[in-house]
Amino acid sequence: MLGAIAGDVIGSVHEAAATKTKKFRLFVADSTFTDDTVLTVAIADGLLKGGNYVDALHRYYRAYPDAGYGGSFRHWAECRKRQPYDSWGNGSAMRVSPVAYFHDNLDDVLEEAKRSAEVTHNHEHGVRGAQATAAAIYLARTGSTKDQIRQFIEEKFDYFLHETLSQIRPTYLFDVSCQGSVPQSIIAFLESNSYEDAVRNAISLGGDADTMACIAGGIAEAYYGGVPDDIRVRTLALLDDRMREVIDNFVQRYGSRFSKRSR
Length: 263
Hints:
By secondary structure, this protein is mainly alpha-helical. The chain has helices at residues 2-11, 35-49, 53-63, 71-78, 91-94, 99-102, 106-118, 124-141, 146-157, 165-168, 178-190, 195-203, 209-224, 229-237, 241-254. The longest helix has 18 residues, at 124-141. It is globular and about 45 Å long.
């Protein structure tokens, strides 16, 4: 989960910048958490408390109303709606990382990811994006190779993951759809050689940078066995006590569920 949050924070200043390079400072004065972080923590809190995802998302929106939410989600939360709005946006994928640690078998992870998505993103592509992201994290944390992760995601979700970043980057544009950003975020992880490299890869595509780095970062954390200490410390320093407490409680309960892959 912290890998997703750090990706969001690092990507926050690149969201509208169309960054097409991997050469940038990880943290700058304007680096901050966005709705990706807030809603990731909301999902984790909901899992910890065994409560309703709708209530958790509403509660966190009210606590952090200026985190940069999409218009549809903002309207849903402002009006305290309880029915989904058929979204295919990548909001379902950006917040799903805690789900991949909550269960110890893939079928349950996929079902929980579906449940976490459907409270807002009940469109087929919205559900698929959340499930693909959660599956990639689960497979990464349980020791699957990158080739095994690629094969499963391609076969299960019909995502094409054999393009390279150098093929995607020149023509890639800002895209908030699951179908137009989740596969590319997974490829950013697949081409990486470290957690930091995965985040840089995702941002370098010049798209929805914070969310794509959030998705790639969540998978990379699981695969590489955590977030580098310097990134972890700087990320946590930008959060408030409420979020840090939820993260700490979640990690204490589920943080041992990392791959034993040798580093």
